[in-house]
Amino acid sequence: MTLIDPNLNDRQREAVQYLDGPALVLAGAGSGKTRVITQKIAYLIQHCHYEPRRVLALTFTNKAALEMRERLAQTLSALQMRGLFVGTFHALGLRFLREEGAAAGLKQRFSILDAHDSHGVVQELLETTDKGRIFHVQQQISLWKNALLSPDQAAARADSDEQQEAAHIYRSYEATLAAYQAVDFDDLVRLPAQLMRDNPEVAERWQQRVHYLLVDEYQDTNTCQYDWVRSLVHGRAQFTVVGDDDQAIYAWRGATVENLQKLKQDFPELKLIKLEQNYRSVQRILVAANQVIGHNPVVFGKRLWSELGHGEEIHVEECAHERAEAEWVAFNLMQERTMRQARWRDFAVLYRSNHQARILEQFLRQFRIPYVLTGGQSFFSKAEIRDILSYLRLLANHDDDPAFIRAITTPKRGIGQVSLQQLGNFAHQQDTSLWQALPYYLLRDDLPPRQKEALQGFYQFMQRLLAEVDQRGQQAADFLDRLVGAIEYEHYLFDRYEERAAQARWQNILDLLGWLKRKVVEDDLSILELVQHVSLITILERSEQDEEPDAVHLSTLHAAKGLEFPHVFLIGVEEGLLPHLGRDDENLSEEAAPAVLEQRVQEERRLMYVGITRAQRSLRLSWCQRRRRGREEVVRERSRFIREMSGQPVTMAVQEPDKTADDYLSELKSLFD
DNA sequence: GCTGTCAAAGTTTTT
DNA sequence: CTTTGACAGC
Question: Who contacts A103 (Cβ-Cβ below 8 Å, separation ≥6)?
């Protein structure tokens, strides 16, 4: 039996070994949080002989779950990990609903609608194409769900006409999803929480099952997630949550830091353990981080310190515009890598929003710097992936109308808006789904021959697929190839897009097929058994056993949480971008405005804090005097966060104007002469 | 009635 | 750059 890692410090060891009751570990950035969780899991299983299947560890991202599993695999044997759950709230929710879904009126093979699909549903219900409005209502519904509010409760609280309308849409939205036999992402957590709350039998079953619960990034839980956690640990109260209030960056998703205080109220015996020693960054970076976060109101009061020495000064570069900024990053990456004799992977470029990656990519390519993008558009929201998945979803769940519509119209097979509209009306009259209605619709004798033929063709095609879809293992893999071949998807892509774009999309399809096929063969599953999982898993898992390539990391600040890099570039540190301020046209209501604004700035400040604390040894910030925003170019100011962190030496540099990529390159060449 | 072409517009962050 | 909307052609 392995002993506790002797490298743990006293606080960490205490956090690992404390089992007398519930524990809250306040873990500052870089204080060995993941280590504590994984060590504690190992401790529970190896030392305290917990059955692995009785231990659950919840994370927010697949990436975090994956990393945790990898680390555990270094300590635990395959047998010791068997049955252990390490995954996201949503993945556990899916597992839960597959077992208990009937109690919520869900059949076994319900569909999971992604953000795209729910957008479509809301659009239909709102009968508008106003994207802003759709987006807003969608977000409102999501917030209500995450706060565990029913449509009725939402309507009761709605304090404006717009909110009233949103609450109304919420009700129809729920009815629509029920008709589709579908849940959205929020439901994956909300329904389990509600089922456990309303159904003592179900609650009992899961409480018996969970003997120890661990929650990572606890500060990012929303009301619904907390409610579920509380139900799961009810009675036993054996759990450890790990979090850092200074890194709470998901308020916009309904997360509430108050869950930290609530925990203390609900579990008065809660043990609080603070981890303040940082093992990641040099002192100067920590000072900067502490300075910035010091401008937020103190909740728990942590002070990070490290023994890693002072480190070099933090550099702030003032750039003319975003092209210049990207050039500066690219040039510096080349220079720094050479001078420090570092690898590409030692560098990360972090930014507030995804679109900033575009221009960076251009310049990195130009300088021939290898890079990997994390975050950004998820693999599973790419059009081509959704196309193929829509067939699988429809095969698994015939009531999944969004999947039906996508499948029948992609690739084009002579069925367009009008045919669909007519079929839709018919299905609506019959109060059934499109797929179920289709054979009866085909019996009508007033159909235009072409339409009838096209619909019939699709129906028969799907029927043939249906006959084979139960196959597992290698046969399931072959089935996938046949499906993609039969709809001539490759041809469709190359027909529709330019060579390069089509190539990239086809590659995505090949990746998807590769992943699916490996999964069905390895675990001897049928496609049907896999579909639900697919939309929850990021393609990260694909590279599970692939070597991490030596490449610069490009990431949004949100996606960078939990990661660390020797050298970090944090770009676009400007007022309006970081902190990002909501658009002016937003209906900031009267007296609430200043308070709301302050809340937002505080969250942005935490985001800045997260960014700074990713850096181990060096940190470089940049901001632009001007930046393109849609059509026009706007003048920008240096972020207040730069001012806030500069109680210490900071190098401020102003970029030479009108320097071009060529200038940089020749400058670079001269370095080697 | 369906599909392809052209022009315009554009979410901050993610499961 | 990519996706969506309007319009004309088949």
Answer: A195, A199, A202
Q: Which residue do the tokens 């509010």 mark? A: A149
Torsion sign (Cα): A340, A343, A346, A352:
positive
Residues 6+ apart with CB under 8 A from A591: none
Strand C: which nucleotides have any atom within 7 A of a protein Cβ?
Answer: 1-6
Q: What does R_g of chain A's alpha carbons equal in angstroms?
A: 27
Measure A417 CA to B4 C1' (Å). Answer: 15
Which long-range CB contacts under 8 A does A647-650 form with residues at least 24 apart?
A: A647/A287, A647/A291, A648/A284, A648/A287, A648/A288, A648/A291, A648/A314, A649/A313, A649/A314, A650/A313, A650/A314, A650/A315, A650/A316
- Token pair belonging to A546: 């692939």
CA atoms within 13 A on the CB side of A321: 14
Q: What is the pLDDT of residue A656?
A: 62
> What would you measure as the largest C-alpha separation in chain A, in angstroms?
83
Pair of tokens at residue A419: 């045919």
pLDDT digits (tens, 9 = 90+) for A197-244: 999 999 999 999 999 999 999 999 999 999 999 999 988 889 999 999
Contact of A183 with A112, CB cutoff 8 Å: yes
CA dist A257 and A249 (Å) reads: 10
Nucleotides of B under 7 A from a protein CB: 1-4, 10-15
Long-range contacts of A455-461 (CB under 8 A, 24+ apart): A455/A415, A455/A419, A455/A423, A457/A413, A458/A408, A458/A413, A458/A415, A461/A486
Using the CB atom, is residue A156 less than 7 Å from strand C?
Answer: no
* Cβ contact A450 with chain C strand, < 7 A: no
The kind and range of the H/E element at A385 are helix A383-396
Spacing of A141 CA from B2 C1' in Å? 35
Q: pTM, whole model, 2 decimals?
A: 0.88
- Please, are residues A293 and A252 in contact by the beta-carbon 8 Å criterion? no
Q: Which residues of A are known to be catalytic? A: 33-34, 216-217, 247, 614
A525-550, pLDDT tens digit by residue? 888 888 888 777 655 444 444 557 78
CA of residue A58 to C1' of nucleotide C10, angstroms: 56
Q: What is the helix (H) or strand (E) element at residue A495, kind and residue range?
A: helix A489-496
Question: Is residue A277 left, alpha or beta, with left meaning phi > 0 and alpha meaning psi from -120 to 50?
Answer: beta
Beta carbon of A265 within 7 Å of strand C? Answer: no
